[in-house]
Give the backbone structure.
Amino acid sequence: MKFKYLIFTIIFIASFFSASQAFAIEKKSSYPKIANYFLKWDINDKEAEKLANWDLLILDMELSINSPDKIKRIREINPDVVILAYITAQEIIDDVYSYPNAILRQELYRNIDDSWWLRDKEGKKIVYWPNTSMLNVSDGAGLNEKEERFNDYLPQFVMENIQSTGLWDGVFYDNTWGDVSWVDRNIDINNNRRNSNSNHVDDLWSGGFKKILQRTRDLTGDDFVIVGNGRVYHPYLPHLHGMMLEGFPSYWESGGTWEGSINTYLKLPNYTRKPSLTVINKYHKDREDYQKFRFGLGSALLGDGYYSFDYDVSNHTQTWWYDEYEVYLGKSISPPFNLLKDNNNIEAGLWRRDFENGVVIVNSSQEKQRIVFENEVLEKISGTQDEQINSGEKINWLEIEARDAIILLKEMNIVNDSSFTNGEFLRVFDSAGKLARSGFFAYLQGFSGSSQILLHDLNGNNSREQIVSYDGEVKVYQNSLEILSFSPFHHGFKGKISIAAADLNGNGQKEIIVGAGPGGGPQVRVYNLQGDCVSTFFAYDKNFRGGIDVAVGDTNGNGKYEIITGAGPGGGPHIRIFDYRGRELSTFFAYDKNFRGGVNVASADTNLNNKYEIISGSGPGSKAEVKVFNDKGETINNFLAIDDYLKGINVSVFDSTGNGKAEIFVGIKHY
Amino acid sequence: MIFNIFKIIKKRKKRRRLHFILDISLSVIILLFIVFIFTFNLYQPSISDSEIKSPQEPDEPVEINDPLEIEFSLSSLAIEKNSFKTLNLNYKNTSEDEIDEIVVSLETITSGFNLSRLESDSLPENVEINGRDLVIENIDGFSDEEIVLRAYFSNPADPLLRHCAWRALIDINFLDEEFSQEYSLDNVRFLSDTNVTSSAYYHSIRGDQLGIGPIPPIVSIPTSYWVFFQIDNLGNDLSDFVFSGQLPHYASLGEKKSLLAGNYSYNPDNNQLIWQVPSIDKSGGTYRAGFEIEIIPDKQHTGQVLNIIENLRYRYKDSVCYQEKSGSLPNLDTNLQSDFINQGQGTVIE
């Protein structure tokens, strides 16, 4: 009875584990999806940390023995990564025992029966890749003492030595060819020292391979990923999650043309298991041939697969990183379409596909093409590698070379969930202080210039209300209708009112937090959505008349929002963090304590550590320095938003791409 | 007959009245004479020795009046800082004798202001300006003159000080006597310090891209530029600021704007763009409007630099000086004078 329970428990845990792995694979829905085909037999910490940046890793199976901790480290850094174990399905290196770090290959080799080698009619082993010998995957191979053929043994090996480690999401069978007669005319597929008819050879070969795939599936279960590599052979696809199209567009695939390969690539998900994990691999010895890199990436983005770019077929050990990999395009929102034709027949042309945050354009034609985007502004990505292409420039037209591609981002022109000054010019930085996007004027028509605006979903209706403060009043608009209005301070106060919003007390309702600007007292007031003041306290000495700036954020990661205040002009650059009731949790100076220009604040998680950082901007009279602090007031980062600018900056934060990391928006009145 | 009798009686009555008046007058004189004699006899003088002076010939009692009539007239218009107030000075010698050494000194009363200098384009030969003084050598008897002066004021340290009280002090010498006069002059009101500017950019001063599209512009491809209108003000509150411009037929107003103050309107029928700010604070602030304007050149524009916006005009009221000011600014074109990155790249290409 106990044994039954134990079995049940194991099955339950195993199914949960499998399900969670499948979930991890499903989870990657944003583009680009990037793969690294990295076949070193052991890896170091540095490589592991770099490899963690990819979404799909094809790593050599020897890492199970040589670097299991590195695989775990990769998963620690990137829990969503999919890791497949590389194994050649039809060959093995000859001098396997001369490699001390080839433990699994030695194990495999040790169990290979002599009748499993693929030979010619004269009994010579067939060689496809130098220093390796081919194995006969067909049922023409002999049986070992356990009455097994190689096509029985290999899946068993995969289950016992790869899947059982728990390190891998699946297996990557290299060279899943549908035929083999092209390797050697004299293949003895039946192991009878006779030359076989090539059709017969290929039939047996493909039948054997299918058996390997089927048996692997049977042994490892539905959720274990199996990906093949080589020329696509349709009968295998129902057993596979995808194929790698190595050397895209390769001469062996679909006629050796771009249109042939892309046609195959786009259709593969229709035939493979789900989720489809097809990979386009492109290689080129010059890592700085960005055009080749882009053309491959752009082609991959026309479909739903992953993209890998490395040295060449003989050396897949690169961690080459490109500007384009940093882009977060979000989900796809259109199929690919040809801008040069009215139909979408797969042929060379000028192709486009749209995503939530951008588009990809691929010129697979033989001529340079010009595109004018009508009523559309797109933005080149901002990078350092091909500065002409990745210039960050906003464009409404484009000239693109033949056999090139480009990723363009949709224009950014608004900040959500963090207040901004209407009409100010905003520069966009990542948390490291790098200019992330083109700047823009944040301006909502219909509201006065210089009013404070916060676009935030206050009532959970999945659309953002407009919270506007101007002339001493705070008003809330929903679909252009005023739904709430209140004057938080005495009626004579017509100055700036800083605004923020969050559910501070965890009652499921958002509150509006306000602070009077220069000329007002340092009073924080919290209003519910009925316009009632539910909390109020002084953030600084109540006689101080420099005003305050307010922000909200879960700075300590406790799941509750805190109120962050920055002292206005005339006071020191004093930042304080309070809980909902006004109890001080932290206090520190953002800049030199003698600086009297004031400090304004914003808060967001800029580094995916599940805590909100505090971002400060210096007021007039000091250089335009942005600082990023943790809740203890320790500086995480600082940078100059603008050179030689002393007129004061305003900071806002917003995750504009949806990748979880907030960008920092620095507002200036003097563009 | 009866009539004659009445006449005789009337004559007699007249004579009798005359005699009566003479009699009364004589009686009053005799009475006054008696009072005088009586008073004289009662008088007993007691003069101390020290008060006794040697007898002198008494002076002839000659009274000399200031013969200079002077008038100042100023226009009621306020002036701009670093500008001048025009002062018309009319003077007249009302006597037959010459007036000498006339000095007209102008001075400010409001602390903070100073009269820095006086200027005039046409002074009579006997008149000269000496610093803040107008020196007239002499004025002939019964003569008059008009002098037009420009009075320059130095700027006070406080930029919000906009009213200056001042006066004129006049010293003259006439028949060896010195006379002084003082005139209060109407306060000088200074217009607000304003600067209205317009500029067009593709890249901002700090290098941020604002415009979109090809530079230089290419036939049939839209290029958008940003034009900015700005008023800087210090001194007086302003009201009813209006800035207008007209877009050429090949240009259109883009969707993007940035107004730090006021509101705008655009009339597509006449392509007129108007920016209005109801009130502008005397102590400064950023009053600026930015608009995206898109041009699509056609083939006939090849080789030309195109205007982005034309007929730029503005007006506003100085609320303190009750004075309306207006002006115009040059057209903004694709050569982008203000844009250091794209300046001069405005010629349309194919």
Remarks:
- DSSP finds one helix and 19 strands in chain B.
- Confidence is low (pLDDT under 50) at residues 47-55 of chain B.
- Residues 2-42 of chain B form the longest helix (41 residues).
- Chain B touches chain A at residues 204-206, 208-210, 212-214, 220-222, 224, 228, 256-262, 286, 288-290 (CB under 8 Å).
